[in-house]
Amino acid sequence: MSIMDNRNLTMMTDLYQLTMMCGYHRMGMAKNTAVFDLFFRKTKSNSSYAVMAGTESLIEYINSLHFSESDIEYLRSLNLFDESFLKVLSELHFTGEIYAMEEGTLVYPYEPIVRVIAPIMEAQLIETALLNLVNHQTLIATKASRVCHAARGDAVMEFGLRRAQGPDAGVYGARASIIGGCVGTSNVLAGQLFGVSIGGTHAHSWVMSFPTELDAFRAYAEVFPENCMLLVDTYDTLKSGVPNAITVFKELREKGHEPVGIRLDSGDLAYLSKKARAMLDEAGFPNAKIFASSDLDETIINSLKVQGACINVWGVGTKLITSDDQPALGGVYKMAAEIVDGQVIPKIKLSENTFKVTNPGIKTVYRLYDKNHMAIADLIALRDEKIDNTKPLTIYHPEQTYKRMTLHDFTVRELLVPIFIDGKQVYKCPAMDEIKKYAESELDALWPESKRLLNPHVYKVDYSDGLYDLKKKLIKQHRSITKYE
Fold first, then answer.
1. C-alpha span between 338 and 315 (Å, rounded)
2. Which one of 94, 122, 262, 483 is least enclosed by Cβ atoms within 10 Å?
């Protein structure tokens, strides 16, 4: 079940996709086959990796792709498109192939994380939506992964719905957060749609609705005796909140119930959590958890851990759901080849900015592991190149080629998997718990140095010999034709 079930997002595109499609139609190019790569050029600040998310949304979008009668009427009203083109649109559906990284896969700059091979009009149309879906969800999954890494095994809850940039960002951001490592979310709709754990306590307004804080705590304990988590910072955390919580916890225990714990939402969380922990322990509640919120992110959580904060569960909201330190992933969608009469014609985009020069040809990505199944490097290769792990393999930096290493005892895994073939879905989306476990295994295979929150070790992403030679060849050809400098 998904928020996008039966939702047609075909019109969620940029106008220039439609004007280009119209041009292809008028120029007799509609049946040309194009190859596009979706990739990003850099990771979030101080992160060596990103976490792939959005593949399931991509599938739902493609399966629902069609122009409705009202869509065609609107496009007709723009007076941009002739009737022959509008007729083509009215009959359009996806007939090509899509390969993509599975959700939870660790991904790196310049790797094609989605590869599209389709008639050029179809491939062009879906660009905007694919970028929208994959960019956002991968961004949030990556942020969540860093937050959870900072928590060092403590549970992290996603709490950001009220601060998300709209309903879809809140719902799919919550899902991406679970992929990134969160144990649950406050978002009830996300829980319903995706079968993920939801959680929450009460707000300050609950406490303020009663004559006293103690009255409010007693009432909450009466309603939820098995799930009593009390927010203790409405008036005075240590002089009022925690002592009143302990009073109610004792009353609960006399009735045969054990409290869950307390929540801190303001103040010096390191100091308050240590003091509260001592008070709870002394009162006989060593198992009562301390839950903390209050504009947290990976940097603050890491600092609190260093300070010895006694916090068991972290509620992370605004800075996670908005990825406030980097609000966009910056993924792009670039043509890599055309296929004419069965022959692949590689394409390359050149630029004065070297980081904008694209990689040509139909490509795949291989992940190389050592004998302990730790990731050594990724290799971007041409689709038809195969890696023989029975022979030594030398890999090298794509620009600084003197940086190289030779692998002997290694294994290989291809990362792009078939999602659509001939327009038909061939991939079965895994359940959320499977995706989460897979994402955890991906992180387990990454060296700790590459998971550092500050100045992480750069993971190696190299080019195969075939891709390296093809790229050099095309650059040389275009320079000779265009005098490109």
1. 48
2. 483
